[in-house]
Amino acid sequence: MESLWDSVAANVEQQRDQPSAAGSSSAVAVSGGADGGSPAATSSGSPVESLPPAPLQRPDFNRDIFYKNKLEFSVESGWLPINIPFVYDFLVDSAYTANPLPYTMIPNLVGVRWQRGDIKGPVVLRGNWDFSFSGSYTDVERGPETRYFAFDFGIRRNFVPRRWRATPYFEMRGGLGAINAKGYKVTYGQGQDFTFTHMIGSGVRYNFNSRWSATAGLNYMHVSNFYLSEPKIEDYGINVYGPMFGLNIRMGKEKARSVH
User: Which pLDDT band, with edges at 50, 70 and 90, does 29 fall under?
Assistant: First the structure.
């Protein structure tokens, strides 16, 4: 009987001590997490890790400006008063000298730009390509001729950093044209009416929004008949450069918004 009583008393004492131990264990876990000494533990004994929230990345609005098959109406005008030698003289075995007769050309181009793809490429070269098809009228402000008409095809590389309104570009153009040549009576004038044209330019395009943008840069312009007038009249050509400015307007509807 006495042993039975002792067993019951031991069980009561054990049940009385269990809540105290659990509370002590909880206190240790809480104090450990609070003072930064050791992380709180789960019931399985593994530490609970607090993961930092993922950073929010702002969308790149340039993907709504530069994208595949976008069409833009383009107007450009320049003032090219600086005369230089033909930039490819080293390829045609010619003396690297400028035409002794100075020219000033004022080109005016109206055309369409066709973006050929979406923004791609590594950080430095990130961007897209566009083609341009333009008709141009050039006023010959200084020189024996007075006007020049041409059709030009061009290709441009747009360099597009993320979320930049100002985007650099580099472009080249080529075309066919007609000038009222005076080389038959003015020394160093153009040898015939039918000519070829070549242009190289670079600058910055500023995008006001997905519809409107403006460009500003430097442009080199070459006009010559590719020696077709020789030997009767020497082909001196025109080689000038100066500032060029433009305005682009999106044609058609705005691109559907998407998460970038």
Answer: very low
Whether the bond into 231 is cis, omega within 30 of 0: yes
Residues 175 and 133 in one domain: yes
Whole-model pTM: value is 0.76
Give a yes or no: residue 41 inside a domain. Answer: no
- 71, 185: one domain: yes
- Asked if 106 and 79 count as a contact pair (C-beta separation under 8 A), the reply is yes
* Same structural domain, 142 and 238: yes
Dist CA 197 CA 175 (whole Å): 5
**Do 207 and 97 belong to one domain?**
yes
Compute the distance between CA of residue 88 and CA of residue 35 in angstroms, rounded to an integer: 75
Q: What is the identity of the amino acid at 169?
A: Y
- Which residues span the domain enclosing 130? 67-251
- Tell me the C-alpha distance between 93 and 99, whole Å: 16
Which pLDDT does position 139 carry in this prediction? 98
pLDDT at 49 over 70: no
Contact 202, 171 (CB under 8 A): yes
**pLDDT for the residue 95:** 78
**Domain presence at residue 55:** no
Decide: 207 and 62 in contact? Cβ < 8 Å: yes
Residue 30 and residue 118 in one domain: no
